[in-house]
Amino acid sequence: MTDQTITAQTVAEHGLSPEEYDRILEALGREPNLVELGIFSVMWSEHCSYKSSRLHLKKLPTEAAWVIQGPGENAGVIDIGDGDAAIFKMESHNHPSYIEPYQGAATGVGGILRDVFTMGARPVANMNALRFGRPDHPKMRHLIAGVVAGIGGYGNCVGVPTVGGETNFDPAYDGNILVNAMTVGTARTDKIFYSAATGIGNPIVYVGSKTGRDGIHGATMASADFDEGIEEKRPTVQVGDPFTEKLLIEACLELMATDAIVAIQDMGAAGLTSSSVEMATNGETGLRLDMDKVPQREEGMTPYEMMLSESQERMLMVLKPGKEAMAEAIFRKWELDFAVIGEVTDTGRMVLEWQGDVVCDIPLGPLADAAPEYDRPHLSQDDYKAWAKVAPLGDIPACDPASDLVKMMGSAHFASRRWIFEQYDSQVGGDTVQTPGGDAAVVRVHGTRKAIAISTDCTPRYCYADPVEGGRQAIAEAYRNLSAVGATPLAVTNCLNFGNPERPEIMAQFVGCLEGMGEACRALDFPIVSGNVSLYNESKATGGGSAILPTPAIGGVGLLKDWEKSVGIGFAGEGEDILLVGPDSRHLGQSRWLEIVHDRREGAPPPVDLDAERASAEFVRGLIAEGVATAVHDLSDGGLAIALAEMALASDMGAATFEMDAGQAFGEGQARYVVTTRAGWIDGLSEAPVRLLRIGRTGGGELRIGASAVSLDALREAHEGFFPALMASEL
User: Fold this and answer.
1) What CA–CA distances, in Å, run from 604 to 447, 469, 600?
2) DSSP state letter for 119
3) In Å, what is the CA distance from 484 to each residue of 122, 316, 666, 672?
4) Per residue in 115-164, pLDDT tens?
5) d(CA 99, CA 108)
6) Which of 552, 582, 650, 685 could form a disulfide bond with 616, CB atoms 3.0-4.6 angstroms apart?
7) Is 93 annotated in the active site?
8) Whole-number Å distance between alpha carbons of 265 and 316
9) What is the reported pLDDT for 237?
10) What does the pLDDT look like over 61-91, one tens digit per residue?
C-alpha cells in the first residue's frame, strides 16, 4: 500500500496538477507514498484549502464588538447579551446531493449540525437554501423529492427544527443543483470550545460512529466539474444516521459540561485527515496517530481509506491527561464508539503508524497554512459585462396587475413552498416563534425573552447581470428580512457557490460579488463570521448547461430583545392603513415580472443604496419596537404587488390600493418595506426620516390594485397548486 509507484496518472486521479505535485516533492524532499499523496490531495482540494478564494476572502469584514469568533473555526460566534452566544454557519453539499439526493442533503444537514455543536452550542434551528433547475427537466422531480426528504428526514430525527429557507429554480442549475444548509445554536460565552490541539502528550480521542469506506475522496469530488461519468461517483457520497447524531450531540454536550476537553473538531470534509491536521495546525503542534486503534466497521481497511473516509457522525478530541476513563464512560453510556488513537506531539508533523510501520510522515505546514494559494486571472467588471451580454432594458409592456399577479403567483418562482416546509418539523423544541413563510424565522433563546432571527437570501440573476450590485443586494436583502421581523441584524454566514474559477469570467463573478458583499457589510455593520466556498459547480452531464448562476447565498442572524414584539407578514386586521416605506423606485431591470409574464430577462439589476437600506431598516425596526407596525414585509422579487399578495394570503384578508403602473406594481427597487398600522396613524406624524406613503387599506376578500382586482380564492388556487401538481406528475 505504501510502496505503490506514484505515476503522473496517479497524481491526476487525485486532482493534483503537475505543479502541485512538484510542491509536494519539495515539501517532503522525497516522493510521497500513496497515503501521503491522498492526504495532500484532500487537504489541497478546493473544498478544504480554498486555494482559489483565500486571497479574496481576506477582503471581507469579519469584526465587530459583538463578534466573539470570526472565520477560521468550525462556526462563527456572536455575543447576544446576558452571557449568551449564538453560534452558526452555512455549508454546501451540492455535488453529493445531485449524485444521491437523499443522502447528499441529509449528510449536509448532519455536517453543519456538527460544525455548530462542536463549539459547545446546542443546535436550535436549521435553515436551507436550495436551487434546482427547470421544473420540467426529466431529473428535477427526483432531485427535489430526494433533497427535501433528506433534509426533513435528518433534521426531524435529530430533533432540531427546520424553521425556514428558500427554494428557487433556473435552467442554469439543471446539471448542478445547490443544497446549502445552515444551523444556528446557542451556548454560554464562557463555555465555547475551539479546535487548537495543545498540550504535548495529551491524548487524541476518536468518538462517534465507526469508520467505513463511504465518502472516500468526497472533498476531491466536490472540487471538480461534473462530467458524463457522474453516476460513477456515487460511492463518494456519505451515508448519514440522524439517530447516532442525536446521541453524539448529547454525549458531547455532557462531556463539555466537565473540564476534560482541550480541543474538539468534527470530522467533516476529508474526515480524519482534515480534523487532525486542522487541530494540530491551529495549536501549532504535531500529532501521532495509531491507525490500528481507529474504530472500523469494514474488514481490511487501509490507512489510506481510514484517513480519507467521510463516514458521518464522528468527532476528534484532545483531552486532558487522566480524563480518558470518564470521557469513555459518557460515550459508552450513549452507545457510541470511543478510542484513544494518538497523542499531541511537538514535532510539527503528522505521523501515522499502522501494523508496526510508519506509513505517513508529513510536515504540517505545507498541508495547511502553506497550501497553494492562487490569484486566478479574472476579467474586469466592464469586460465581464461585455462577456455576459445582458440585453438592455427594452420598452415596458402594458400591465394588468390582477391577471399578471395570478400568473406570477402560480409560477415556480412564487408558488407556495408549503409542500416543502410541511415535510420539516419546525416546532420541535417548542421555541419557534415564526415558522416558514415569512421574511425571517424567529426562535426564542430558551428560558429568556430574547429571540434569534434567521434569514437566507440571494438573487443569482442579479449577480450574473452585475456581480458587484448582486453582492450588495444579497447582503441588503438579508438585512431587510431580519429588520422586517423586528430584529437587529448582527452577523452573516455565507455559502459562495460559483462555477470553475479557472475561467476568468467566473472568477470575475466571484471577485465582483465579494466586492459588493464587503461594501454592504461595512456600510450596515453586518460582519461575516463564517462560511463556505463551493466552486466548480458546472456540469456537462445529463443535458445540463455549463456554470451555475453566481450564487453567494447569505445567512443572516439578528437579535430581538423581546420575542413577543416580533411581527409577521400577515395583515393583522380590517381597515388598517398600508404604508410603503423607502425610496420611490420603479426598477424593472432583471425583474420577475418581465421574465414570467413577458419571457424577457434583461436590463441591469436594481441599484442598492446602502444609506437608504440602513435608514429604512432602522425606521421599520423602530415602528415594530414601539408597537406601531402590525405587519411588515420587505420588497424584493416581484415588487410591491407580490408583497401585497403574500401578506393577503398569509392573513386571508384582502386589500385595496391606488392605481399602479408596471414599475410601481412589479418593480424590484431596494430598501423598501410594506408596513400596516392602525388607520390614521400616519396622519399624526409630523415628519419621518424616510419616504413614507399611504398606498391603501386592508380588508375584504380580494386584492384590488386600482381598477384591477383578483379574489383571494383565485390567488390561493394559483399559489398553492404548483408544487402538488409538479410532485404528483409522472417522471
Assistant:
1) 47, 9, 13
2) T
3) 26, 40, 20, 10
4) 999 999 999 999 999 999 999 999 999 999 999 999 999 999 999 999 99
5) 13
6) 582
7) yes
8) 5
9) 73
10) 999 999 999 999 999 999 999 999 999 999 9
At 319, which helix (H) or strand (E)?
Answer: strand 314-319
- The three grid cell numbers given for residue 333, joined into one nine-digit string: 453510556
pLDDT at 297: 92
Rounded Cα distance between 253 and 258, Å, is 9
3-state helix, strand, coil in the chain (%, to 5): 35, 25, 40
Output b/e per residue, 280-298; b: 16+ Cβ within 10 A: bbbbebbbbbbbeebbbee
Angle between helices 101-117 and 140-158 (to 10 degrees): 40
**Range list of β-strands (E), 120-171:** 122-132, 162-169
CA proximity to 544, closest of 233, 96, 134: 134
Residue 510 · residue 600 · CB < 8 Å: no
Of residues 194, 165, 167, 164, the one with CA closest to residue 77: 194
Q: How far apart are CA 340 and CA 328, in angstroms?
A: 9
- Asked if 498 and 510 touch (Cβ cutoff 8 Å), the reply is yes
Note the pLDDT of residue 217.
Answer: 67
What does the alpha-carbon distance between residue 507 and residue 498 come to, in Å, rounded to a whole number? 8
Residue 563: closest CA among 41, 58, 14, 80: 80
The full DSSP string for 228-239 is: TTGGGGGGGS--
Out of 47, 56, 217, 587, the active site residue is 47
pLDDT at 542: 44
**Distinct helix (H) and strand (E) counts, the chain:** 25, 26
- The C-alpha atoms of residue 370 and residue 365 are separated, in whole angstroms, by 6
User: Which of 93, 95, 587, 633 is the catalytic position?
Assistant: 93
Residue-wise DSSP of 360-406: EEEEHHHHTTTS---------HHHHHHHHTPPPP-PPPP--HHHHHH
Q: Do 536 and 497 form a contact (C-beta atoms < 8 A)?
A: no
What confidence score (pLDDT) does residue 230 get? 47
Nine-digit cell at 411?
409560477
**Going by DSSP bridges, is the β-strand pair 577-581/551-560 parallel, antiparallel, or unpaired?**
unpaired
Nearest residue to 118 (alpha-carbon basis) of 249, 241, 236, 246: 249
- Which residues of the chain register pLDDT less than 70? 1-3, 217-236, 540-545, 730-731
Which phi and psi (to 5°) does residue 51 adopt? -65, -25
Checking 398-402 for CB contacts under 8 A at 24+ apart, the result is 398/662, 399/593, 399/660, 399/661, 399/662, 399/665, 399/666, 400/708, 401/641, 401/660, 401/665, 401/666, 401/705, 401/706, 401/708, 402/703, 402/705, 402/708, 402/709, 402/710
Place of cell 458587484: 468
List C-alpha distances in Å: 436 to 427, 454, 559: 10, 11, 18
pLDDT of residue 236: 54
Task: Categorise residue 150: left if φ over 0, alpha if ψ from -120 to 50, beta otherwise.
Answer: alpha
Give me the helix-helix angle, 712-728 and 140-158, nearest 10°: 100
What is the grid cell recorded at 414?
Answer: 412564487
CA trace torsion 542, 543, 547, 548 (10° rounding): -80
Assigned C-alpha cell, 723: 408544487
Residue 4's alpha-carbon distances to 20, 28, 31, 304, in angstroms, are 19, 17, 11, 12
> Does the active-site annotation cover 217?
no
